[in-house]
């Protein structure tokens, strides 16, 4: 029997052989037809995605099913809403912003032409990631999505609702190696009257499992200083099966509040699909309640301390009054 390593090696050799036949100009039409069918029907067996926790929401949804309307200077026009009316922010039952709905709305407003140009101008190699059953395909870089995400969020949440949208938030931190490091958080969404961001977004583009794992860990270095309400890994990928067979963070990181959404799209950005793993609303509500209880306990402790100070002041005042009375006695 073959072990996992031998199976992966055999898998690689087999499909590399198919690619050789596919590119061989001397191969017959019958052989080419068989090779194409095998390449189209194959599925990557070496990728073992972690399952979301039992109490998380694993959502799969088609975001864009047809060509989006032309890009406009106002998000209101794109969403067929009068430009003099602000676009409502999606909220949860507890009144907090629904970050996943915000992400879906934002992606729907991405400029199709800009994303399409990324395949030819602002691109990188997919390396060993399968894209249309092939390796080393040109795919858009992270900066392509980062720029679109920032623009739409700023035009929507900042202009209409006064939110602060920050890109590449510069953080300074002494890390585990003992050295001083400069860190840069991709995007944050923050209310102007709030001390901490509502959401922290870390973007990736057609990332390998090792790179995903690295960012799953990296994002927690940001939250030590920013303390956001929610943390999201937003992965735009052209990889085959990224939505139907997504890769999730380990159970420990999911329990710490790490949310992940994978967006797949075609070259023209006319078809976009999504798969998300996030904390259920009840867990977010529990966290919010726990935070309120902590703040309430802090206020109670401060009140006790304040009462003690007041009692001391009263004692001093009483002593002063007694001293005055004694001095006034003939």
Summarize the structure.
This protein has 330 residues and is of the alpha+beta class. The protein contains nine helices and nine strands.
Describe this structure in words.
It is built from nine helices and nine strands. The longest helix has 48 residues, at 281-328. Strand 8 (258-265) and strand 9 (272-278) form a beta hairpin. Helices cover 44% and strands 20% of the residues. The chain folds into three domains: 4-41; 57-279, no CATH class; 283-330. It is of the alpha+beta class and 330 residues long. It has a seven-stranded mixed β-sheet with strand order 1-9-8-7-6-5-4, sandwiched between helices. Strands 2-3 form a two-stranded antiparallel ribbon. It is elongated, with a radius of gyration of 28 Å.
Fold blueprint:
Layout: H1 4-23, H2 29-41, E1 57-64, H3 75-78, H4 99-108, H5 112-118, E2 123-125, E3 138-140, H6 142-161, E4 164-174, E5 180-190, E6 199-205, H7 209-226, E7 230-237, H8 251-255, E8 258-265, E9 272-278, H9 281-328
Parallel strand pairs: 6-7, 7-8
Antiparallel strand pairs: 1-9, 2-3, 4-5, 5-6, 8-9
Helix pairs in contact: 1-2
Coiled coil: 282-326
Keywords: Coiled coil
List keywords for this structure.
alpha+beta, two-stranded antiparallel ribbon, 9 strands, 44% helix, elongated
The Cα radius of gyration reads: 28 Å
Count of helices?
9
H-E order: HHEHHHEEHEEEHEHEEH
What proportion of the residues is helical, as a percent range?
A: 40-55%
For the biggest β-sheet, the strand order reads 1-9-8-7-6-5-4
By DSSP, the count of extended strands is: 9
Biggest sheet character: 7 strands, mixed
Count of the domains:
3
Strand content: 15-25%
Through-space gap between termini: 111 Å
Mean pLDDT: 76
**Overall 3D geometry?**
elongated
- List the uncertain runs: 43-49, 53-57, 66-86
- Secondary-structure class: alpha+beta
Assembly state (oligomeric) = single chain
Coiled coil: 282-326
Keywords: Coiled coil
């Amino acid at each position: 029997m073959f072990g996992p390593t031998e199976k992966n090696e055999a898998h690689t050799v087999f499909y590399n052989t198919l690619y050789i036949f596919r590119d061989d100009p001397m191969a017959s039409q019958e052989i080419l037809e068989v090779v194409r069918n095998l390449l189209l029907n194959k599925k990557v067996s070496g990728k073992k995605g972690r399952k979301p926790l039992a109490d998380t929401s694993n959502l799969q949804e088609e975001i864009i099913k047809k060509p989006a309307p032309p890009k406009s200077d106002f998000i209101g026009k794109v969403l067929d809403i009068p430009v003099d009316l602000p676009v409502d922010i999606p909220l949860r039952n507890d009144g907090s912003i629904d970050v996943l709905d915000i992400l879906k709305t934002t992606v729907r407003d991405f400029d199709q032409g800009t994303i399409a140009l990324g395949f030819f101008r602002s691109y990188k190699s997919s390396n060993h990631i399968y894209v249309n059953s092939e390796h080393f395909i040109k795919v858009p870089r992270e900066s392509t999505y980062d720029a679109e995400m920032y623009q739409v969020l700023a035009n929507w949440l900042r202009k209409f609702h006064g939110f602060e949208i920050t890109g590449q938030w510069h953080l300074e931190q002494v890390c585990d190696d003992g050295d001083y490091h400069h860190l840069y958080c991709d995007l944050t969404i923050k209310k102007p009257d709030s001390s901490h961001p509502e959401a922290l977004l870390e973007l990736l583009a057609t990332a390998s499992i090792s790179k995903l794992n690295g960012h799953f860990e990296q994002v927690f270095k940001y939250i030590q200083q920013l303390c956001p309400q929610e943390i999201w890994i937003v992965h735009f990928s052209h990889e085959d099966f990224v939505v139907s067979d997504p890769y999730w963070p380990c159970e420990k990181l999911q329990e710490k509040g790490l949310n992940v959404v994978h967006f797949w799209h075609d070259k023209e950005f006319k078809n976009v699909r999504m798969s998300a793993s996030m904390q259920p609303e009840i867990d977010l509500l529990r966290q919010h309640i726990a935070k309120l209880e902590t703040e309430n306990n802090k206020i109670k402790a401060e009140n006790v301390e304040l009462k003690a100070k007041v009692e001391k002041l009263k004692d001093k005042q009483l002593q002063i009054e007694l001293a005055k009375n004694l001095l006034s006695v003939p």
